[in-house]
């Protein structure tokens, strides 16, 4: 018998042992298990992808909301700044008006004081001139009679 015959017999015996030990069932079961694992992994990957898309959509929505909120804050800040500038201008104008009015009051008061001082000086000068004239022109007896008449006039005006 030649070597091919014995090789064929050995192959048939080997295949028989394999079938007896249920190697094809094990291989099939192993392949089915692997296919199930791959199917589960694909399903899990699909779920993860859907979750990632949901998260992406949520983050994009949050980003848009944050951008809108930031725009609102910037708009509010600009509006508030405009109000503050307007208020500052108004306060400055009021301050300048008050300071101008105060300066005008001080000027008019200084004018009144100057006029009063000039009048007082004029009265003092007139009194001094009248005294000198009277002293030069009136003698002692006339001065006494003028003094007495002035005292009498004063008494009648006071009573």
Compact overview of the structure:
This protein is an all-alpha fold and 159 residues long.
Name a few traits of the molecule:
159 residues; mainly alpha; single chain; rod-shaped
C-alpha termini separation: 181 Å
Mean pLDDT: 88
Rg, Cα atoms, Å = 62 Å
> What class, by secondary structure content?
mainly alpha
- The residue ranges in which pLDDT falls below 50 over 5 or more consecutive positions are none
Quaternary structure type: single chain
Q: Please, how many helices?
A: 3
Shape: rod-shaped
Subcellular location: Cell inner membrane; Cell membrane
Pfam families: ATP-synt_B (PF00430)
GO cellular component, one term: proton-transporting ATP synthase complex
GO molecular function, one term: proton-transporting ATP synthase activity, rotational mechanism
Explain this structure.
The protein is mostly helical and 159 residues long. The protein has one domain. It has 3 helices and no strands. The longest helix has 115 residues.
Task: Give me the secondary-structure topology.
Blueprint: H1 3-21, H2 23-137, H3 140-158
């Amino acid at each position: 018998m030649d070597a091919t015959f014995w090789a064929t017999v050995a192959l048939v015996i080997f295949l028989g042992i394999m079938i007896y030990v249920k190697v094809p069932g094990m291989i099939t079961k192993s392949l089915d298990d692997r296919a199930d694992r791959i199917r589960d992994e694909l399903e899990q990957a699909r779920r993860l992808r859907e979750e990632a898309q949901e998260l992406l959509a949520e983050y994009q929505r949050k980003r848009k909301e944050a951008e809108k909120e930031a725009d609102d804050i910037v708009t509010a800040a600009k509006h508030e700044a405009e109000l503050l500038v307007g208020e500052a201008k108004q306060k400055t104008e009021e301050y300048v008006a008050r300071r101008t009015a105060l300066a005008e009051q001080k000027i008019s008061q200084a004018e009144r004081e100057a006029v009063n001082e000039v009048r007082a000086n004029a009265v003092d000068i007139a009194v001094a001139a009248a005294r000198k004239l009277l002293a030069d022109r009136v003698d002692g007896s006339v001065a006494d009679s003028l003094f007495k008449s002035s005292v009498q006039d004063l008494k009648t005006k006071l009573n």
